[in-house]
Amino acid sequence: MSSSARVLWKIAVLVSVGFAHSTLYEGSCSSARSGEDWSGETSLPVGGEQFGSERDETPRFNLGTGPESRRAFVREATLHAWRGYAEKAWGTDELQPLSGRGKNNFGGVGATIVDSISTLYIMGFKDEFNEAKSWVESELNFDGVGEVIVFETVIRILGGLLSAYHLSGEEVFLHKAEDLGRRLQKSFATKTGFPFPRCDLNSTSCGFHRDYGRHVLLAEIGSIQLEFRALSFHSNDQSAAALREHAERVIEMLKEMGPKENKGLIPYLLDINSGRFSNGYITLGSPSDSYFEYLLKTWIQGGRQEDMFRDMFLEVMDGIFAFMRVYVGDGITILQELAGNSQPRKKMDHFTCYLPGVVTLGLELASLEERKTWMSFAENVTSTCFGMYRWSPCGLAAEHIEVDEDDFLYFSGGYMLRPEVTEALFYMWRSTHEPKYREWGWEIFESIERWCRTDLAFTVLVETNSEDPAQGDSMPSFFIAETLKYLYLLFSDDDRLSLNNWVFNTEGHPLLITPGLIKTE
Ligand SMILES: *[C@@H]1O[C@H](CO)[C@@H](O)[C@H](O)[C@H]1NC(C)=O
Ligand SMILES: *[C@@H]1O[C@H](CO)[C@@H](O)[C@H](O)[C@H]1NC(C)=O
């Protein structure tokens, strides 16, 4: 337990303060996608999703509380964040909203611009979309970019460019993605084929994380598949085909090497030379999280035909139900972490809240009896994740939640404008249409407006256990890419980015489901 953690409330008290936990799922699953025949499905063409068509008007509170009004507020917040960045930090990676400066924490690739394009398109910000496109066309030049983190570059930049291409059909995004792909190919030049964590985009050199020696993290090798596969589908480049094979080979290796005693759950640290696991620590949160997510999403992306990904995902679900669920109070589900040979920790990251979305997305794979359990599990985790917001004095969640032997609940860390809970609410809404998920999303949005909005943009909080929390000086690029996008989609109709056509990468970028991706021998 970190020293900064503080006891807030005893669980029993906490639950009685009016946090209405969800009731067991009893719906008929009519909205779930089970029973549909996927085989004959034709997918949307590139550029086939229409540009957003909202009217540009300043929202006013007398617009009412319907979804249109709420979308207008989310749009206004997005524009505010975008304009602050554009005014003070244009071309840098991220805005520091308090000091009004930009910073290059991703190598100087204009991360906020590239990461925002899909959101601008979906929300219908034509001028801003065109500004971003012109910047990509004329300013985004990887020749001047030195060392980057491969994983972050793949999910934010490559994913952002490919999503922009899939949505708009504009070739410039594809060409930049191809250029970036070529520069990342060298990352796979290791004994195992696990990619190096860091590479220079403008030279041939790659290297390791400063903290982990010759070891790599599960999420960073296991959640790059959607992006490289999407690239290979559209590109005739030899390197794109090779990238796809490298990325898929990583998953095959994990299947071969992974310890089996915890079913599909595998530890987060691997040796880049031997391919062996370097520790026994299992978590669904960071730094493993999106690996579990990509097993399912990779299967969906390819039109649900590649059994390896599906089977590995189902093993993960078995593992979660067998080892990870811990109840610490009525209506609260904490997912524990398995710390090798020592005691499990009842600790859950904000990161882990991506999980309900993945479970509802995978519902079509559950048997009839399993379906109720999966849905109830997704609801319970979502309630707990939303609880991390509602139980906090400022209405915004800390980075971690942990429960000790005496059932005291601890929170630690600030609020980083993270997306996982708005993402969970989006998926829960899509699969149940229970109004509470929209209400919860709105409550979170109001707290963000209240505590994170600055004159310039939005900023993180360094603490959450306060009725007047102190602000930090950072607006991560995922705030526009994910947090605001998922809120907007939560208040949109289901055919806006239909889950029949789109699969979201772990940075919130929608990529087309592409059954033709599968090679036919
Ligand atoms: C690569 O980019 C870095 C800046 O990020 C620069 O310092 C370095 O000189 C560049 N190298 C080449 C070969 O262009
Ligand atoms: C969800 O929570 C309820 C209430 O605590 C519990 O009865 C139920 O078993 C939980 N469901 C799952 C699948 O964990």
TrEMBL record:
One of its GO terms (cellular component) is endoplasmic reticulum. Belongs to the glycosyl hydrolase 47 family. One of its GO terms (molecular function) is calcium ion binding. This is alpha-1,2-Mannosidase. Keywords: Calcium, Disulfide bond, Glycosidase, Hydrolase, Metal-binding, Signal. It is an enzyme of class 3 (hydrolase). Pathway: Protein modification; protein glycosylation. It comes from the Eukaryota. Residues 32-65 are annotated as: Disordered. Its EC number is 3.2.1.-. Ca(2+) binds at T506. Disulfide bonds join C353-C385. Its cofactor is Ca(2+). One of its GO terms (biological process) is carbohydrate metabolic process. The active site is at E152 (proton donor), D289, E399 (proton donor), E420. Residues 1-20 form the signal peptide.
